[in-house]
Amino acid sequence: MSEPVLLPDGRWHVSSGADVDHLLRNDRCVPAPNSILQGLGVDWMLHHHGQIHAAERRAFRASFSPRSVWRYRDTVTDIVDATLDRLDAGSVDLLTEYAFPIPLAVIAALLGIGDLDPVEVHERWDDMMATYGPLDEAGLSAAERSTRALMTVIEQAMADPGKDTLTAAMIRAGDDAGIGRDVVAADLLLILGAGFDTTMALIANTIAELLQRGGFVGHDDPDGLAGFVEEVLRTQPSVQWVGRVAADDLEVGTTIIPAGSRLVLSLADANRDPNLFADADHFDPSRSPNAHLSFGAGAHFCLGAHLGRLEAATAVARLAARYPRTRLIGEIQWREHALLRCPRALPVELRQV
Ligand code: HEM
Predict the structure, then answer these.
(1) Whose CA, among 43, 147, 163, 249, lies 20 to 30 Å from 35?
(2) How far is the CA of 293 from the centre of ligand 1 (A)?
(3) 297 lines ligand 1 (CB under 6 A)
(4) From the CB of 92, is ligand 1 less than 6 Å away?
(5) 73 within domain boundaries
(6) Confidence of residue 330 (pLDDT cuts 50, 70, 90)
(7) Which CATH number covers residue 154?
């Protein structure tokens, strides 16, 4: 078992699967607060812990349960098919033309938000995410502007939430649980943003992996793709690591991590730990169980995990059904990103025969 490593910047890097799992479930190892976002009035469930976090999870979990997500199936399929309809056979970058637009269109439809410009939302979300790193004056004002712009989108949706939308359901559930509307708004903003980069990465990584392993033929059934998607999640987690802060001294292996320390919990390392996964570097779609940590674990386990899986399986299977003989053209280029594993471009030739 590997011990935590103290990085030059003062953070502790934890890579053992058992330790990462244990620390994700340890209530003395808490999400790192983001003071810039909090200063901008965006304090969402990912930063909360204890009672307020438990209340948010209780209130909102029904909207993301397997049963609820099952009801979103037709919406997801319609959006995937409409995106496919805009593609022609021949050369295309599936990252920008396919994996990128689908997740945002899905979450916008579920939240009851019309007409979002995916490029603009993506840029604004990137500005907000930059607050998790060091930020200069220009970065801070971009984050402020972008936060205000996305919050306006959420406030408009909340003012006119429609009947059957996630927005309406979350407002109702929040009111019933006595959760303030400002917290509901912040959580809706998190849900708008948290799902699209991660799901885009999962769709793109799954397409890339399939095309490098014999192609699309025989992979046109979303349910049949489930094991393949799980193994892509394990071997190439969209989110490579999550951050935490030690609320007390933490004993990890034989190391004591002092209270106040920042931790990097490496999901990517944990998922390749031979103590948790036999033949861990081998890609095996039939692996069962496949208890990877790509959606986190414990209190902050991804609320959108079922939805992310549904979107990826549907998007890839429908693409495979329409263009079974698709092949990669050129090298996959990977995005340079501190957190995400995702191609920057996925150049393919779409082919039916
Ligand atoms: C394949 C796609 C996805 C991946 C890999 C992913 C990954 C993760 C991970 C690793 C966490 C835990 C963060 C932590 O512990 O600090 C998380 C939390 C979260 N995810 Fe996802 N996610 C995905 C899709 C989605 C979608 C589609 C949504 C919503 C529609 C979503 C909403 C959330 C929310 C709200 C949280 C915070 C939960 C909490 O703090 O209690 N995610 N996700």
Answers:
(1) 249
(2) 11
(3) no
(4) no
(5) yes
(6) confident
(7) 1.10.630.10
Which of 295, 337, 339 is the pocket-test mutation for ligand 1 (most atoms within 8 Å of CB)? 295
Decide if 83 is inside a domain: yes
- Any ligand 1 atom below 6 A from CB of 302: yes
Question: Does residue 289 have a cis bond before it (omega within 30 degrees)?
Answer: yes
The Å distance, Cα 292 to ligand 1 centre, comes to 14
State the Cα–Cα distance between residues 172 and 188, nearest whole angstrom. Answer: 13
CB count within 10 Å of CB 335 equals 14
Is 293 within a domain? no
Helical pair 305-322 and 101-111, crossing angle rounded to 10 deg: 130
Q: Give tens-digit pLDDT for 122-145.
A: 999 999 999 988 899 999 999 999
As a residue count, the chain comes to: 353
In a domain, 6, yes or no: no
Domain that holds residue 112: 34-241+307-350
Three-state DSSP class for residue 220:
coil
CA-46 nearest atom, ligand 1: 40
Domain count, the chain: 1
Which tokens go with 51?
């009672």
Atom of ligand 1 nearest to the CA of 60: 35
Confidence bin at 1 (pLDDT 50/70/90)? low
Confirm or reject: Cβ of 185 under 6 Å from ligand 1.
Answer: no
The DSSP letter of residue 4 is: P
Could you tell me the two tokens for 229?
């998607």
Cα 253 to middle of ligand 1, angstroms: 28
